[in-house]
Write the structure tokens for this entry.
Amino acid sequence: MDLGYVMTRSNIYGKTPIFLDFEANKAGHFYLGGFCLLDGIVEQYILDEDLQGLGVAKELPVTTPIEFTRRLLEIVLNENGFIVGYSTAEKNYLNSMVDELDIGSEYFELLYLNLLKSAKKWVNRYKKTSFEALPPLRKGANPFMQKTQKWSLASTMRLTDFLPPSDYAPGSTTKRFNDVRNALVKKGQKYENLTSVQKQKGTKVLKHNCYDVEALPHLFKIIHATNERHLETATSLLFNN
């Protein structure tokens, strides 16, 4: 049961935010995990063995979602940290693995900050007019997608100086992963045998995840400097135990 824990100034002080972004499809199949600390140096891990060729070509470790999560949680614990994700998606992903993780009781005291919740408070209080004036994130998107993407991380970051790259394509990431995955399976994981288009898709999905991870500390710092309370009230226990 989520106890609705709210971070106060006394327990946010001195803790290390660790920023996390998973790439997964709607069925919960993991492709990639990326995280960083406030220094913005991103670590990426391939989480699908059928993308091993991409990992080898890009010199990224290939592991399972469980092992990646174990490493991540050990870092959080050792750094006296807490996890920051945009929305509750990353929290839900981690909770879906908790039974397989076999972790000690100390991990159930870890915290999770939903930066989307903080961003909405920040936007509505300080940036509402500018936010409402933003055009759709992706030109040509249908009304449903426009509404879905309005509060996405990339959309919100348009209010900052850390803009999404020109080839950032929301809604295309899963297809790109699947295209690269299928091609690698067909080619026996030999990345060099992929077409130039397939290789570009592999590069773009890694770039997409890297931007999302790097954007999190950037936005966190802006909100923290503006109104720390918006962070405190968006924090809860990581695991719903």
